[in-house]
Structure formats: C-alpha cells, structure tokens
Amino acid sequence: MKFHVLEDIAAQDCTLEKDVVRGDKELFYLVFEAFKAIKKIADIEWDSQNPAQVMNMRDSLAEIKHNML
Prior knowledge:
Layout: E1 8-13, E2 16-21, H1 31-35, H2 50-63
Antiparallel strand pairs: 1-2
C-alpha cells in the first residue's frame, strides 16, 4: 500500500515487506487527510503493546472527528 499523503519507506520484517511512515507529532496535521478514504480498520496483533496502540489510534481518530468512530 502506498501513501499519497505521507512519505513512506519500504522495510523488511522477517519475510514480510511493510510500508513504514517515519515521523512524530510534526506529522499529526496530516492524520485526517491520511484517514479520509478509510472506512474500516482491522487491528490484528498479539503483542503486549497492542492495547496501547489501538487506544492511540482511537484517540487520534476522535481528535480529528473521523466518522469511523
């Protein structure tokens, strides 16, 4: 998947290729544009940080008033 809003880089994780967006809070203003066309999000992870990551995404979507919530 290629991002049209955020610059992405390819990264290797074992045998799975992923697209990674590097940045921090300076890119937050782009969150609404990046999520504008997304209708559903599925989170499929089993590590210990997953609950915190899901809550961060939910908070970000709530802050930009995304209609997915």
